[in-house]
Every structure is written in structure tokens, then in C-alpha cells.
Records
---
Amino acid sequence: MDWGDVIRLANQGNLTPPRRVEKSREEWRELLGEEQFFVTRQAGTERPFSSEMCSLFQPGRYACSNCSTELFDSATKFESGTGWPSFSEPVADDVVAYHRDGSHGMVRIEATCNVCDAHLGHVFPDGPEPSGLRFCINALSLEKIAD
């Protein structure tokens, strides 16, 4: 997957997810802490450098903190200097969805969990090879799991 694929999916529709997890707003609010609900269900952003996850590079996978879908592998994690965990690609093309985001006076591509619609962060075309992508992800959207 590259930037052209991300733009195409954002404009024409995302891939079918491997499964779906759907809950009401009230159910999500009961399951998640206040900050996690704000970030993942209200498309919020945590403060940069607010999580130790930025400097965590042990082997393993990162799953959606809302539905436990595996999203990223530590082998694709890199230090972007932005203050948020950054990855060059998801573990599978169908686990992340892409949406045009025109908030805050700019146009970006929002990344969400394709299984439960949790806001993850944004994806940018300034990452390392081979994908050239930088998935800039809120740590509150992720949970580190073992390989």
C-alpha cells in the first residue's frame, strides 16, 4: 500500500473489514476511560509526547484499544519525532480505514479502525520506504500485545 492507495480508498470507499464490532455511544462510554473515549470515539488528539508508547520498540503487535483488532506490528514502528507512535504500514490492508478530514483548516487523511470505527490518528505521505507512509497514531487508540 502506498499514498495513492490511501487516497483512492479515502475517496472511493474502504475495504471490507475482517469483522465488525458495533456498540452504542453509551456502551463505548461505559467501556472506555474519559480520555480514551475522547480520542477514539470523538476524534480527539492526545498531547504529543504524553505516552511512553512513543519510545517503546520491543517486538510485538499493537491492537485497537477499543476492539482488540491487531493493527500494527512493531517491525513497522519508527521514531518520527512527532510525539505520537508512528508506523509505516498496518498488519493487513483491511484493518485500517481512511477518511478525508477537513477539520482545523487543513485537509488530512484520518485513519480509523475498520472493525469498530475508533479514531486512530492520521496518515501522511512522509514516512520511510518501502511504503512512504507515516501512520501517526494516538497511543490511547492502541494496546501493546505480545507476538
Note: The beta strands are 61-64, 70-73, 77-78, 86-87, 96-101, 108-113, 119-124, 134-137, 142-145.
---
Amino acid sequence: MTSPVFHMIETAPTPVAPFSHAVESEGFVFLTGQMPTDPDDDSKPLPDGVEAQTRRVMDNLIIVLKGLELGLEHVVQVRAYLTRFEHDYAAMNKTYASYFPPGRRPARTCIGVTGLARGALVEIDMLARRP
């Protein structure tokens, strides 16, 4: 068994807490949940609405994946967290689904939570597998 590798991606958003962008072990890559923060300016306000926040979160995750020379096609599992579950679930799903082809969607769990960092409406984390 090899030791885990802890990744910080230079182009990815500034972490909102003490964590690595991803940790890799035995071909699995665990991506930390991303927030809808601007990767170029963490001080900017979050996008308005769950659709825009979901797009920003997914785009931030893609930045992390690219920094690891991976893509969404390598993602095998996703967890999504929503602060307004009943209100935002359908809209988040529609935006999220646009990132994956219908025949190649990762396993996923969606969880309602009471709050997220920075007052975000959505956070998403991923598990990817190296080919």
C-alpha cells in the first residue's frame, strides 16, 4: 500500500477551511467539497441562486480534476449538500445533470443540511478513479 498523496491545485479556489483540494490513494482520488466561490477572487460575492451556484461548484471541481489530469469521466461517486433541500433540489438536479451524459452518471447521494460555509446554497464533493 502506498502512502496517500495530498494535492493542492494552484488554479483551484482558495480553501474556505484547512483541507487539501484532493487526496489520492491506491488509484482513488477524493475531491474535497467545493463551494461556489470564484477561483480568481475569493472575496467576490457568491453567485445568486442555486443554478448559478451549482454551475460554479461543478466548474470548480473540474478545475481540481484538470489539475490532477482527470475529468468528469473519471468520477464514480458524488455527494451534494443543499441548505434548502425541498426548494432547490429540482433546480440543482437540472444543472448538475447537464455536466454528465445520461448513460454515464456517477452514483450520487444528495443531503439536506442546515448550513454551509460562506452561506452557500450548495456544496458538492466527488470520488474519482484513475484509469
Note: The longest strand covers residues 75-82.
---
Amino acid sequence: MSLFSVLSVSASGMAAQRARAELLVENLANSETTRTPEGGPYRRKDAVFTSSAQGSPFSAVFQTEMGSGVNGVDVADVVEDTREPDRRYIPGHPDADKDGYVAFPRINPAEDMVDLLGASRGYQGNVAAMTAIKDMILHSIELMK
């Protein structure tokens, strides 16, 4: 395995964590949205990660010499929450039903904030790995001088 292929693995992890963070921020921003273009309240979204083969133009030669490729991570799917929405009694709300109940998204802001911190830490971990690999490459170049 080349150092360049390890860079592509970290890059895939960063991209996946960025996509996850975008979904979490969207969930937080829409935690009180009672009406969407599709109808009904906003539905919470989650990213589903999967293992995927990674490659980079830099490592193509190394991968052919070393054999098999390496696996990274990718966002396989974005799933919506299928649970029933929360119902709150607010009779004067424009989206209230005939009984005065309004359907709100089933979102726990504290849970999404913790997930957002986890995505941030995952992103930071991949940045740290890329920095370490970059330093290894630079030291290897210096040794060859």
C-alpha cells in the first residue's frame, strides 16, 4: 500500500464526514419546520456509510505494483426518518389540524449536536492522518536527496 493511497482513504473519510455534517446541520435548521414542499413536517435525514474502493491518480502505478486496492468510506444512502411526527397542541398555528394539533419533525437537537461533534472529530482525525502521511512523504523525499 502506498502513502498516496492512504491519502485517498483519508480524503474519502473527510468527504463522508462533511456530507454527514451537512445533513445534521440541515436537521437542526429544520427542527421546527412544519410544512415542506412534499407536504407535512420536515423528516430527519441520516447518512449511511459504506466501504468503497479508493484510488487516486498518484497511486495508480503503486496499486498496480502492490496488488489490491484499498478501501475507504463513501455515503451509500441518505435515509429519512419514517417515524410519526411529534404532535403539539397549538390551535392558532396555520398548520394545525381540525383538533388544533400541529405535526413537528421528530428531531432531538441535543442528539444531533452530539452527532455533529462526532462528525467534526472524524473529520479532524482524517486531517491529522493526512498531515502525518504528508510528513512521511516529505521525510522520504529528504532521505533520497
Note: The beta strands are 45-54, 70-80, 86-89, 101-104.
